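FORM 7B: Structural annotation worksheet

SECTION A. Query
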Amino acid sequence: MSPAGWVGVFLVAALALVAVAGDRLAGQSFDRQDIARALEGPGSDHWMGTDALGRDVFARTAQGARVSLLVAVGSTALALGLGVAYGGIAGLAGPRWDGPMMRAVDVLYALPDVLVIVLLSEALNATLGVVPDLYRRLAALVLALGGVGWVGIARLVRGLVLQAREELWVEAARSVGAGPARLLGRHILPNIAGPILAAAALRVPAAVLAESTVSFIGLGIQPPFASWGVLAADGFAAMRSHPYLIAFPSLAIFATLLSFHLLGEGLRERLERAG
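SECTION B. Predicted structure
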């Protein structure tokens, strides 16, 4: 892997540790209020300052990493499962089924992602009304983002399967009686897993950005819970007088986008050299 790819590995590992630790990194709860110390700038007691309610911005940013990355990784896993299944079936099914299946994918691909995510998340929020607020919104975002993200993965997998099914080793597997399910699961997918994993690594930052956008406009995670989109929305109102409130969550989003981009590109370069 290239040096940039290893930088991506290190940064992703660091982000994962922050997400696991959450607000424990700051030594205090992300929702602990201290009005007497509201809107303090970064200092020794509060590394990233405090917000309008005296809550520690570092604790909220670290907790936001847990929420935002949970949504991003969960939705990417869902998109990966749906996309691999759909694209694999389309690639093996032959022209009779492949054409209609991919026309449906083309229609979904043409729809604006943010609009579909908002509509799906709001519909799912209403459907899951008996679930506690945070878990309901997490589930709705994971399902909505996964329900949008699988389309691109399906197109990629279908193209890879179409290429792979013409290879001699696939013909050899067919000749010994391998059916479509075994052919796909035991022979084709293991040999095309590299490009799929690289695409999944690049899908995570797209999901982080989408979750942050939806939460920023008030339709995703809601206060007092913390996600990077919520923190950016809180900081936007005070951007002129207290710019650190929006700077730190924005830097966290940028670092995540950069980390997974470097990781995905590193994986892609390594696979190209190996191929």
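SECTION C. Observations
The two ends are 13 Å apart (CA to CA). The chain has a mean pLDDT of 88.

SECTION D. Sign-off
Analyst initials: ____
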